[in-house]
Amino acid sequence: MPYSYETDGAAIYRQSFATIRAEADLGRFTPDEEQVAVRMIHAAGMVGLERHIRFSPGFVAAARAALEAGRPILCDARMVSEGVTRPRLPSDNAVICTLHEDGVRDMAQEMANTRSAAALELWRPHLSGALVAIGNAPTALFHLLNMLEDPDCPRPAAIIGCPVGFVGAMESKDALWAAQPVPCCIVEGRLGGSAITVAAINAIASRAE
Amino acid sequence: MPYSYETDGAAIYRQSFATIRAEADLGRFTPDEEQVAVRMIHAAGMVGLERHIRFSPGFVAAARAALEAGRPILCDARMVSEGVTRPRLPSDNAVICTLHEDGVRDMAQEMANTRSAAALELWRPHLSGALVAIGNAPTALFHLLNMLEDPDCPRPAAIIGCPVGFVGAMESKDALWAAQPVPCCIVEGRLGGSAITVAAINAIASRAE
């Protein structure tokens, strides 16, 4: 075996988080926010990401309380729902992604929108008090904001708004941050994505590092 | 509906890729490599990623030929295997992730290695001529390199080596690049991850944008 390397998973996490805390500028975060931010930086492999992370006041507490109360996690993409580390969840919470459910494609055509946006219509029975995690599609985040304009739409407990990319990602996250219909966390600008979103969920689910 | 936004998925892709081509420095890539790099930048939401992308000569052709020949895609994480867009695959290729198969946890303990590394032992029957995609665990990439030190180990057709993070990611990718046991693609340094890896697979699978 010519290649030798660290093979102890716990040691890898410990060293990684120590490097992030030595290099990143985390001073403006509360202790709860700092744990979430560190895990997001870890998933991105990118010190500097912290400059783009925004938490609204009480976000971590609201999101964590939702999970402790057994509420589901609603994800816009399978790469998000698959990444959630189930043993970290405090109440064996349901992790739901409706993107590939029957009827979503037809609904998207009727709505003249993306499948990612249409899939959120199937969230309505689960939405009350849930933790929402949007880590892929700007259209999903925009559609959620439009759904929440209706006072009869159930309110989630908290929203992780981290869609990624070049068209609508920045704009949808800016819109979420301006509206703040519920406590939320965003990564400003183009950066975001499923790995960063999953990292935020996993950090909220358990303080264990 | 107070928020209006681009809802046409094809238009979103078109605008995104045009922005990337206007902003990124893609001149050193061949046309085939350029398409892969553009999709990787898209997934990361990060112009500048291209400076860290390396393709060995013939990588795209080798990887594409493997898929056209019906060989499987072997992934180190479910976030990678779930992200592959099945309709883009030229031969309805199998997409395999062995991480959660029975016995992996015990094997990892016996090997004194991570589950991500141990899971690769279950790749052996599928490895010959396959497209390997490592988008999460440095230990998986290091273990693959050690497996390939054995001349009796079957050879994949090509390797996407994009583990992410702060411990072993850079080192494992540097080791792959130095050894080049088969044609390969890496993202140098700490950056990488499942989204970038999936983007490379999806671009190799089909030239359609």
Describe the structure concisely for a colleague.
Chains A, B: Residues 12-206 form the Cobalamin biosynthesis precorrin-8X methylmutase CobH/CbiC domain. Two copies of one chain form a homodimer. By secondary structure, chain A is of the alpha/beta class.
Describe the structure.
Chains A, B: Residues 12-206 form the Cobalamin biosynthesis precorrin-8X methylmutase CobH/CbiC domain. Chains A, B: One of its GO terms (biological process) is cobalamin biosynthetic process. Chains A, B: Pfam families: CbiC. Chains A, B: InterPro entries: Cbl_synth_CobH/CbiC, CobH/CbiC_sf. Two copies of one chain form a homodimer. Chain A has 209 residues and is of the alpha/beta class. Chain A has helices at 9-23, 31-44, 59-68, 78-83, 104-111, 115-118, 138-148, 169-179, 194-205, and strands at residues 53-55, 73-75, 95-96, 131-134, 158-161, 184-187. Chain A has one domain (31-205): Cobalamin biosynthesis CobH/CbiC, precorrin-8X methylmutase (Rossmann fold, 3-Layer(aba) Sandwich). Helices cover 44% and strands 10% of the residues of chain A. In chain A, α1 packs across α2 (31-44). The interface between A and B is large, with 50 and 50 residues.
Helical content of chain A stands at 40-55%
Radius of gyration of chain A: 17 Å
Give the biggest sheet of chain A: 6 strands, mixed
Kindly report how far apart the N and C termini of chain A lie: 30 Å
Oligomer: homodimer
Could you give the order of the helices and strands of chain A? HHEHEHEHHEHEHEH
Task: Could you tell me the CATH topology label of chain A.
Answer: Rossmann fold
The number of distinct structural domains of chain A comes to 1
CATH architecture of chain A: 3-Layer(aba) Sandwich
Question: Helix count of chain A?
Answer: 9
Largest interface: A-B, 50 and 50 residues
Number of strands of chain A: 6
CATH hierarchy class name of chain A? Alpha Beta
Provide the structure class of chain A: alpha/beta
Approximately what portion of the residues of chain A adopt beta-strand conformation? 5-15%
How would you describe the shape of chain A? globular
Strand order of the largest sheet of chain A: 1-6-5-4-2-3
